[in-house]
Amino acid sequence: MTSLSVRALTLFDEYVAMPPAARECALASLARSDTPLHALLRALLDADAGHEGILQRSAVDFLADKQPANSEDPLDDDADCADQSRIGSHLGPWRLQRLIARGGMGAVYEAHRDDGHYQQRVALKCIRNELVSAELVAAFLDERHHLARLDHAGIASLVDGGLDGEGRPWFAMRYVDGSPIDEWCDARNADLRTRVGLLVQACDALAHAHAQGVLHGDIKPGNLLVTPDGHLHLVDFGISSLFTGTAPADPKLAATPDYSAPESLQHGSRGPAVDIYSLGVLAYRLLCAQWPAPRHSLHGLMPGWSSAAAEPMERLLLQAPASASVAQQRGARSVADLARALAGDLSAIALKAVAAQPQDRYASAAEFGADLRRWQEDRPVLARPLGRLARLGKLMRRNRAATGLAASLLLVLIAGTGITLWQGQRAAREARATLAVGQLFASTLGTATLSGLGSAPFSSRALLNKTEAELRRMSLSDHPQLLAHSLATLARSNAVIGDYKHAEGLADEAMQALGGTGDDDGYVSATQVSMLNARMQFDEATRLATARLAQLADRNDASARREKINFSAELAQAQWGQGHPPVAVRTLDEALAQAQALGRGNEELQAQVLIRRGNYLSRMSRFKEAQADLLSAITLADSKNIVLADDGREEELFMLVRKSQRIDPALSERLLTSRRHTLGEQHPKTGRAWILLGFTQYYAGSKVIARQKLQAGLSMIEAAYGREHPDYAQALMFTAYTAPSDNRDSVAQLREVLRICDKTMGPRHEITIRARNSLSIRLLNLSPRAQQPGDAAELLSLSTQNLKFKQEAGLPTARETYVLARALMLHGHRSDLPRAAALLRQTQVAIDRYYGPDDLFSKLVTQTRTAATYLLGHRAEADADFARQLAAVQDSSSDLAGAGEHESFIYRALYAYETCRDDDAAALLTQAADDDLRRQGPDGTAIRESRAYLAALRDGAMLSAPRAQGIPQYELRAAALRHTQNCGSGAAFERHKSTQNLSATLDKGKARPGANGAKR
Hints:
Blueprint (H helix, E strand, L loop, with lengths): L2 H14 L3 H14 L1 H15 L9 H8 L10 H8 L5 E2 L2 E9 L3 E8 L7 E7 L6 H15 L9 E6 L5 E6 L4 E2 H7 L4 H20 L2 E2 L8 E3 L5 E3 L6 E2 L19 H6 L4 H17 L24 H7 L4 H6 L5 H8 L2 H9 L11 H12 L11 H11 L1 H15 L4 H26 L16 H13 L6 H17 L3 H15 L8 H12 L3 H14 L6 H20 L3 H17 L5 H17 L3 H16 L3 H17 L6 H15 L4 H16 L3 H19 L4 H12 L7 H17 L4 H16 L9 H19 L4 H14 L5 H18 L5 H16 L3 H13 L7 H20 L3 H19 L4 H14 L14 H15 L3 H17 L13
Antiparallel strand pairs: 1-2, 2-3, 3-4, 4-6, 5-6, 7-9, 8-11, 9-10
């Protein structure tokens, strides 16, 4: 669809509604201003006025008839002359020999090297003379830049480039002597296998481009050229972009609407899913010569129009007129034969590729191509479930020689018994039932939900309820395996939305439905084990997973090996839940070795195991090993499945959060950009990416905009899951982290988080422990004016319970011991200090093992241990340590780093005060206020505390006990007593004089750094 066609269609409704006389006047005016547009619009109007009517034909086909063949736009004589005038000229070492084609922004020439060094033929592209603009030059340079990133046999790669005499860019590509894919196939009456083989080549080329971060943006037959020997080449990256790019704003750069995904037409969205949709439309055109949905309305071609749902290829073919020639061109004897060949697997694959929602399509071009290869090899495809007999049929077709003798013997054994007829009828019923269920799932959940042992996609609760109701109305009692698979699929999908109780019931029902038929591929068993893990029934999950692995022990075929890996992953999850993290990691070690032994083609499976192991290692605080696993997973998946690679990036960000390490917001921005392109704006994983971006931006200092992004992510996750799902609880937890310490609402939020996790996951689940720890930290860090009676008792209870649960689970307890030690120091008694110091020593052991010296958590622990030293009476030693720590501070822009720095200043000021150095105390408090002002602004909690200390110092006391936060009240009282004993009352007047001006300056928010000579 050209820009001229779109303009004609845009004007059609307006002109057809005019009175005849007014329409003729308007047409006459248009003919003078835009002759090509007038001619095309006149043709549309004339056809509409005819007896047959425009709506009796596809508007796409009608417009195609009205356009010159092999041309993007009607050739303008002047433009054609300008492009022809280049023939014979030189660009760099290349002599232009003939004009091959003219596209939306460029003219392509056959050119030959003409510098005497060697002979080479290339396709050389220049900007069309009549279209030169800054936008087109930028797009042209982008295309050249993107081609330079690509090196694949199926992509016409970059050979050379430069500028012409007028400074306009050009570039030369490998010459492809080929025809558009549809013309090549039709000219040879290519059968379905040949056509599918070309689609596989297209998937491979597109997967390479996506792996390099390059989107094509205009997949259509003319951009897939096939050489006489059958090799396909992807060409014309003229509107390509990187994953971070946006749709072209210039209409000359628009993609062909006929092949564009709905989200691209409606919102200008870009991403791998858009290219996959276009390739899916191409598959429809190539295999059945139809569009995925009937397109008999002009409105269907308008930008922003939402087309009807895609229909199976065989149905479209049987409904289409004049299909006999279509069948013959595809090597079929009749339309019915072609429809039968398309029905089932091929139809399911194409339907999945053109799903309306991006998340329901193939996750990557590589996955699309892999399913097409499964069809070529007569193996079960991921896009469609199969019963046991259908799987047996495929096995026999793959191994005809080996099964021939067995089939002959079987016929002898059953001759005369009527079993052959009965089995044939049963197989037919099985096939019909499978097709019906497949269509149900394709029309509601998307075909991915019935594929393999992978994760179920996200679906709404209403959609799941609708699907289950439809499924239960089907008569599937005679098809136990199909019924069991369907129930298991619904179980997985219900678990995704957090309805674990119903999911577990469905999984149990699926096992019961199997009866004695067996679970050949392990799908139902794996679902049951997964549900048991989700409900924390780890002992039973371990028993079932171990039993299944024992059944598979003697099998070594590829399918069994993959099944072993999946059950090993579930076994590791159960072992982790039982409190045996090292055992769980060893199980994943073995699973990873098995996945690597499968060799090429199993990179996604390896990546999945690496991501899970990286998650476990991160939760065990083995951060270096975790990061190595996650980076390896991302590398493996990037070229195969960008969604899976982003799962690895998400886990890496969560690991950095656990480590309390500063995170570059650019990492979170990249994840969000990719999630929006691949999964769409409303997917819960996109919501999590918003949460991570807001969190990292908050701790980088952009607090206002960060809270907006956190709220956006929270709203998306709530819309997807509701408020009783662990994912919503975790998103709410991140939002509460960023609340100011004097905001009491955050305590209520975190109590709600703990309630949800306790209800859905149980009190000992790691997510629940994390929620309890978050509430503990919030209670610990509340500002004095936000504290309420009972907070300290709740804090100590939560911390003690968490420490107990993590010790019993065999997990590192560094954060739990740290929080409990801080709670004892600040809210306990002086008699609790020895226990707090012992807990901090335990924390330090974990710090030395798992964290680096520059990690923020390491620095906080060091500062807290120094505070414990001070409180235990070694004040001079602690003061010297605080001084060294402050001297080493490089950047306190983070709230976490700044909190430790603030407390160090306060302790040093307290020591100066009780040793009669009031000027030094005031100067240190001033420095604390400077830093607090820089980090939090004039209304932050820390600067209020610094001002309160200075005011109290001016009034003759270090600080009134109700306003204290970072130093225990018992220590403040003891310091005041020591000051009175050591310094006497004569110093009061001098102290008042030296602090009066400083306090006045602070009241205006203009404290000067380094006042009174205090050093860091």
